[in-house]
Amino acid sequence: MSTRMFGAPVARTEDERLLRGRGAFLDDLGPGALAAAFVRSPHAHARVVGIDAEDALDVDGLVAVYTHDDLSGPMAEPLPMLIPHPGIIDGRTPYALAKEYVHHVGAAVAMVVATDRYTAEDVAERIRVDYEVLDPVVGIEAAARADVVLHPGMADNVAAHHVQEVGDAPAAIDAAPNVLDLELDIERSACTPIEGRGVRARWDPADARLRVYSSTQTATGVRAAVAAKLGLGLGQVEVVVPDVGGGFGVKIVHPWPEELMVPWAARLLGREITWTEDRREHFVSAAHERAQRQRIRVGFDDSGRLLGLDVAILHDNGAYLPYGVIVPIVTSTQLLGPYKPGAYRVVFTSLYTSTVIVTPYRGAGRPQGVFAMERTMDAIADHLGLDRADVRAANFIRPDEMPYDQGLLFQDGRPLIYDSGDYPAALAAIKKLVDWDGFAAYRERALAEGRRVGIGLACYVEGTGPGPYEGGHVQVETDGTVRVATGLTSQGQGHETVLAQIVADELGIAMSDIVVTTGDTRRMGYSVGTFASRGAVTSGSAVALAARSVREKALRIAGEALEADPADLEIVHGRVRVKGAPATGMDIGTVAVLSNPLRYAFDDASRAATQFAGPADYDRAPVDPDDSPGLESAEYHSPLRCTFAAGMHAAVVETDPETAEIRILRYCVVHDCGRLVNPMIVEGQVHGGVAQGVAGALYERMAYDGSGQLLNASFMDFLIPYSSEVPAVAIDHLETPSPLNPLGVKGAGEAGVIPGSAVLAAAVEDAEGFPITAMPISPSDLFDLRRRFAAGEIAPLRRRAPRVPAQQQPGQERR
Amino acid sequence: MGERMHDIRLSVNGVPHAATVPARRLLSDCLRHDLGLTGTHVGCEHGVCGACTVLVDGRPARSCLMLAVGAEGHELTTVEGLADPGGPLHPVQQAFRECHGLQCGFCTPGFLTLIAAYLEEHPDPTEAEAREAVAGNLCRCTGYTNIVAAVLRAAELRRAGPAAVPEPAVPAEERP
Ligand code: FES
Ligand code: FES
């Protein structure tokens, strides 16, 4: 047999074109298109009183200016509520262009089309919009207080309210021997791919068809949304996703206002139009995530075992709710991690604020949930004077309890049942990797050198690979090339490589003969999209099933031609041959020829396939009734429910006694995403995730001022870490296969980011000797906390008196 | 209301190009949209991300911070010029492929040009130096681990086979 590709660190197929500068990203698609620019609201909350384009009309190159008044029918109505949920009380979505009100800085008010982007921006600058400025709603507290109500017709700012319960948590807590209360805070961050959003559209009047290119995470979603809004049949719209420069969640939202306006105008004008988001636009008009305030009440026994857990979450969803309540649902459910919570109640309240919308960012609510649970675990350990790892171990679901039903409904609307996992093994692995047991001695040595160090641990479970389904199409061409298509899109995850690896093994074909297409509705019309770490699970399984059925057909056809039993055949290096007699066989391309009886001969391959080529069986139709021509197959994988990956991170930090700088000395990851298709790619995903986790924990926050202006809407002020800020990562893999898909895989895309804030809060707290309850934490935040701690405003951790170098007591920094 | 246009001649990857641009045309836009060299990407257009990095007379520069009219008379190298179209990859490109130094590939051209120039002057960096060398460019996908590894691997490839390193577009006498 040939070498197995599944499980090998195969170099990526995508790389060659990207390395040579021959990738084709949205803004690379060539000349010939008009450019769009948008006039955006400078106010967080205002009434649009008038729009005057008079001054712009004499700009050379202006083609058109549109406002909401120009829209009609479905285009004039609010954008869809993509994911309805019974917990949504009043789900507001924006208009493609503002109608009467704007609800955040950056909301699109008018669209300009011009010969090029420079001109379009010249025009946009000259359009005068008259606003009646209204009071903003900034921050969770203001939203909850509802002194200002953002949306007309609402009595408060509550978009959604949802309760999930297993058992009677308040009663269990009241009866518990130990009870703790925690109040936690997480601030906003954002996906911030280096390529922003972008859309390009072309209307073909002769065919009455629309071609849309979008830098999106869902081709089929955009297609359906555009068709619905423009009143076109699905068959009239094709969406092609070019190379995408990162997504991380923000590009799953659809349709964006721009994603509708560009195709709408392209059709109206009969001209190709393109729009590429600039960096400031991405900050103020795309999406953010993370901001939550959490109140936790927990009851536990003397060994730290949870008896009852009661969690109330205030979630800032921004100005609108187009993506529903996926993020707080994920927080509510994934908060449980690898633990049995005893009785559990979780209540979330999702609030409107006059800020950019909040939709999933890699991790999608999990980092907040894990922060809540892991802060709780650390607090319990501290309260009881127990080792933090032991308290976690006491609460683990054991491998022999799998599958384990948490008794809740997950974000896909299906039961939260963990399929497999070995948490004790993962804990043992992470303790070893970070040298958990050796840390006390290390701390002593560090203290002797005047250095302040701490260690933290955080565990998570991640539901990955949700349905409803993904498809795979595998087709063998007569020259032996194998074309593979799946509908979901790629933003750097290496799907072209991973899917080719799977097909290579299933079909016995060289990787170099396989061509993979993703995110093109012309090739695969049924698909969901790329989110929730589902690519390898759903599309990987689908292409495996399609390849298996192609293989079966190839063996059947070759068996007939070779007069051999298909069971005695194998496919090796693209040749179907008799096992044990490798000289007897035929190329798989020849099988493709045989699979498609033709009337016309137009090349060598088709000459061999005409119905006049060879002896015929006159009692049989050229194609059997239960067969179809061609060596191809489309199959779908529709998982029963999510498969649950898991992992644990540990970090060692050093905090500077003077400057309060936080340095990560060691970052360790133990990760279990089932069987690994390509360990090199999985590690890359972990590296990237950890970088975003560290970023969210120590550097990134969206700084809104009281009037709703985003103060740091540039890469100069929003601190994405450079290589100098991201630690080296030590990784260990466990492989607990999933029973829920044919490959045994689980998703890997988001894992790295999830426990970032939890593990670094734990490590900083351990170094400092007082609780950390809000993230991210900057040196100045820590500096302030030290001062408050020294002033007695913050109680010390119980587990040990603050162990800091003698001459540098916390809070005694000289100013 | 017309805008005054300028006829400029740019030398990119050793090939002369002519373009007619307004004075405010960014070099990044001119390369991408006037000359069709879309390998150079823009991620911020305010000089922070480094995705638009090209070599100007062999030295890394952010093409979003330069005007096209100001690039006349200089020798420019973009990612497309690192290796011959049909030929083997440049050692830095090869190293990125081997080390999985790219995911979405959007930031990659900026890193490749930066590192290619860096290794000209620092053929044998330590890991810490390699990390420092790339610390001015943003990547949102990789966490930089494999980019740092790729710098070291590229240095190794260069040392192993200088013959395999294609000549940069800068004439020898103009190199720093
Ligand atoms: S685009 Fe030039 S530095 Fe970001
Ligand atoms: S590879 Fe995607 S931004 Fe660097």
TrEMBL record, chain A:
Location of the Aldehyde oxidase/xanthine dehydrogenase a/b hammerhead domain: 20-135
One MF term in GO for this entry?
Answer: oxidoreductase activity
Q: Where is the composition biased (Low complexity)?
A: 803-815
| Entry protein name | CO/xanthine dehydrogenase Mo-binding subunit
Q: Which InterPro entries match?
A: Ald_Oxase/Xan_DH_a/b (IPR000674), Ald_Oxase/Xan_DH_a/b_sf (IPR036856), Ald_Oxase/xanthine_DH-like (IPR016208), AldOxase/xan_DH_MoCoBD1 (IPR008274), AldOxase/xan_DH_MoCoBD2 (IPR046867), AldOxase/xan_DH_Mopterin-bd_sf (IPR037165)
Organism classification, top ranks?
Answer: Bacteria, Bacillati, Actinomycetota, Actinomycetes, Streptosporangiales
Transmembrane ranges? none
Keyword set, alphabetical order = Molybdenum, Oxidoreductase
Recorded hits in Pfam families, A to Z, give: Ald_Xan_dh_C, MoCoBD_1, MoCoBD_2
The answer to whether UniProt assigns keyword Membrane to this entry is: no
Q: Where is this region: Disordered?
A: 796-815
User: What species is this protein from?
Assistant: Murinocardiopsis flavida
TrEMBL record, chain B:
Q: Specify the domain of life of the species encoding this protein.
A: Bacteria
Which GO molecular function entries does the Swiss-Prot or TrEMBL record give? 2 iron, 2 sulfur cluster binding; metal ion binding; oxidoreductase activity
Metabolic or biological pathway = Alkaloid degradation; nicotine degradation
Q: What residue stretches are annotated with the 2Fe-2S ferredoxin-type domain?
A: 6-82
Q: Which UniProt keywords apply?
A: 2Fe-2S, Iron, Iron-sulfur, Metal-binding, Oxidoreductase
InterPro entries linked to this entry: 2Fe-2S-bd, 2Fe-2S-bd_dom_sf, 2Fe-2S_ferredoxin-like_sf, 2Fe-2S_ferredoxin-type, 2Fe2S_fd_BS, Beta-grasp_dom_sf, Diverse_Oxidoreductases
Q: Record keywords: Endoplasmic reticulum included?
A: no
The protein depicted here goes by the name: Carbon-monoxide dehydrogenase small subunit
